[in-house]
């Protein structure tokens, strides 16, 4: 696998300190997805960590804040050179409050995504075919979404702002893990 990679995670829930990381999905943008299922008692995944830790590769996420945080917590890695389609969407699709993966795939790519397996048991010893299909679908469209969102960011003059946000995401994940997940530390209060 060479070049930029799309990345997503599946966990037992959305609390990265309580709910364990179960699956990491990767795609190089060529229509294939690779799933790495992690055991609850062994988070050693040297090949996965090597790919994700490569600073030359852009790692494309949807809601990178969560994925970066849970991978930091369970795999012990802090990723750099990230792109987040949700963050890009929020910066450029200001005409809507619908920034979920399913919503932006539908609008920007004309692709319907099923989220039926999102709340399933990702900690099971064997994943169902439906879970595998769902997990793969979460990374297969991220490269194309990035292209569409980059066009919109450029058109609206927000490319540099988006990049600054992407650069901050690893630090935002660290803040989440350090206990500031529900607090806006920049707010005047």
Annotate the secondary structure layout.
Elements: E1 5-11, E2 21-27, E3 34-37, H1 46-53, E4 59-61, H2 64-75, E5 82-84, H3 85-92, H4 101-109, H5 129-140, H6 142-155, H7 159-180
Parallel strand pairs: 1-4, 4-5
Antiparallel strand pairs: 1-2, 2-3
Helix pairs in contact: 2-7, 3-6, 4-6
Using the CA coordinates, give the radius of gyration: 16 Å
Low-confidence stretches: none
Q: Strand-residue fraction?
A: 5-15%
In the CATH hierarchy, the third-tier topology is known as: Nucleotidyltransferase, domain 5
The shape, in one word, is: globular
Number of domains: 1
Q: So what's the CATH class?
A: Alpha Beta
Largest sheet: 5 strands, mixed
Fourth-tier CATH superfamily name: Ribonuclease H-like superfamily/Ribonuclease H
Give the tally of β-strands. Answer: 5
Oligomer: single chain
Strand order of the largest sheet: 3-2-1-4-5
How far apart are the termini? 47 Å
Structural class: alpha/beta
- SSE pattern: EEEHEHEHHHHH
Q: What is the arithmetic mean of pLDDT?
A: 92
If helices are DSSP runs of H or I spanning 4 or more residues, what is the number of helices? 7
What proportion of the residues is helical, as a percent range? 40-55%
What would you say the CATH architecture is? 2-Layer Sandwich
Quick tags:
189 residues; Nucleotidyltransferase, domain 5; 7 helices; globular
Describe what this molecule looks like in 3D.
A hairpin with a 6-residue loop joins strand 2 and strand 3 (34-37). By secondary structure, the protein is of the alpha/beta class. 32% of the residues are buried. It has helices at 46-53, 64-75, 85-92, 101-109, 129-140, 142-155, 159-180, and strands at 5-11, 21-27, 34-37, 59-61, 82-84.
């Amino acid at each position: 696998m060479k070049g930029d990679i799309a990345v997503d995670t599946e966990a037992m829930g959305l609390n990265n300190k309580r709910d364990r990381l179960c699956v990491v999905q990767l795609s190089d943008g060529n229509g294939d997805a690779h799933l790495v299922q992690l055991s609850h008692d062994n988070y050693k995944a040297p090949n996965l960590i090597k790919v994700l830790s490569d600073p030359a590769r852009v790692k494309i996420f949807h809601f990178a804040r969560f994925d970066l945080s849970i991978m930091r917590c369970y795999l012990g890695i802090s990723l750099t050179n990230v792109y987040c389609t949700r963050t890009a969407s929020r910066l450029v699709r200001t005409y809507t409050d619908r920034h979920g993966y399913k919503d932006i795939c539908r609008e920007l790519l004309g692709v319907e995504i099923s989220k039926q397996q999102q709340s399933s048991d990702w900690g099971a010893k064997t994943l169902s075919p439906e879970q595998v299909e769902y997990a793969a679908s979460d990374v297969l469209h991220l490269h194309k979404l990035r292209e569409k969102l980059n066009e919109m960011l450029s058109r609206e003059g927000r490319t540099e702002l988006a990049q600054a946000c992407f650069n901050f995401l690893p630090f935002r994940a660290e803040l989440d893990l350090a206990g500031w997940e529900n607090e806006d530390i920049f707010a005047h209060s």
